[in-house]
Every structure is written in structure tokens, then in C-alpha cells.
Design brief:
The chain is mostly helical. It has helices at 8-26, 33-37, 41-69, 76-85, 91-109, 116-125, 127-143; strands spanning 6-7, 148-149. It is elongated.
């Protein structure tokens, strides 16, 4: 593949999707674990929205790698690793995205089904990590406007 410019429209759509799914997670009843577990649909909804958040974040990374670096990366963890290697994300955020990609695989492939308590903990304590990774990716794009195709 030949590197080209990253489509700003795709970036904006994917970032909006990630934020919308984060919003759905934050609308769940999360005041207490008891409240969260009081309806069996809450953990199922949390799992679905969390999977969508993680897929949207990695899909954004895949678009950046494909268009901006000419790399067709398929595997979720590899997307995170290649973004780190290219300096799109760094340090703790880079490692965190690798972990998120692995967690997405766990959700999808049922390697080890997450517990309801675990989903509650993620929703109450770790969603800011997702927002932080997204913000770091977007900040990299703002620092590299020459890599963006802003035409419609």
C-alpha cells in the first residue's frame, strides 16, 4: 500500500462514534454496583457498548495506519502496536490501547467472559482511559495537518 492522506471525515465519524458509545456507557445506572446489577440488561448493555467503543477506537487507528502509513493491519493488538511505533500514541496510552485491543478480543471471542462486577468497574473507573487515548490520537492529527485530507 502507498501512504496517502488520512480522511478527516472518517476520523471525525469514528471519533464521534466512540464518544457516542462512551455516552451510552455513562448513561447506565452506575451510582452503585447494586444499582448496576439490579437489572440484568445493564451488564449486557455495558458489554455491547464497551465492545463498540473499543472497535471504534481501533478502527480509527486502522484508518490512520492504512491511509497515513500505507499499512494494512488487521489484528487489533497489532494496530495498537503499530500506532505506538509510528508515534501516533506514546507511553502509557500506547500500552493502554494494546490492553484495550486485547480486551476487545476477549469480549468478542469469549476467551474469558467478563464478570458483571468487572464490567461495572470498567464503566466507573476506566472510561477516561479510552477518552485519553482518543484525545491523544486526535492531538497527533492536529499536530500533523499535512497528513489530513479535508476535502469532502
Amino acid at each position: 500500500m502507498t501512504p496517502r492522506t488520512i480522511r478527516a471525515e472518517v476520523v471525525l465519524d469514528k471519533a464521534a462514534w466512540v464518544r457516542a458509545m462512551l455516552g451510552e456507557l455513562q448513561r447506565l445506572p452506575l451510582a452503585t454496583v447494586e444499582q448496576f446489577l439490579s437489572d440484568h440488561r445493564n451488564p449486557a448493555a455495558a458489554e455491547s457498548f464497551l465492545r463498540r467503543v473499543l472497535e471504534g477506537l481501533v478502527d480509527l487507528g486502522r484508518h490512520i495506519l492504512s491511509k497515513g502509513f500505507g499499512e494494512g493491519v488487521v489484528e487489533y493488538k497489532k494496530v495498537a502496536e503499530r500506532l505506538r511505533e509510528h508515534g501516533v500514541i506514546a507511553g502509557p496510552s500506547g500500552q493502554r490501547l494494546v490492553e484495550m485491543a486485547g480486551y476487545r478480543n476477549r469480549l468478542v471471542h469469549f476467551y474469558d467472559e467478563p464478570t458483571r462486577q468487572e464490567l461495572y468497574e470498567i464503566c466507573t473507573n476506566q472510561l477516561a482511559d479510552v477518552e485519553g487515548v482518543l484525545d491523544e490520537i486526535l492531538a497527533w492529527l492536529r499536530r500533523h495537518p499535512e497528513r489530513l485530507d479535508t476535502s469532502l
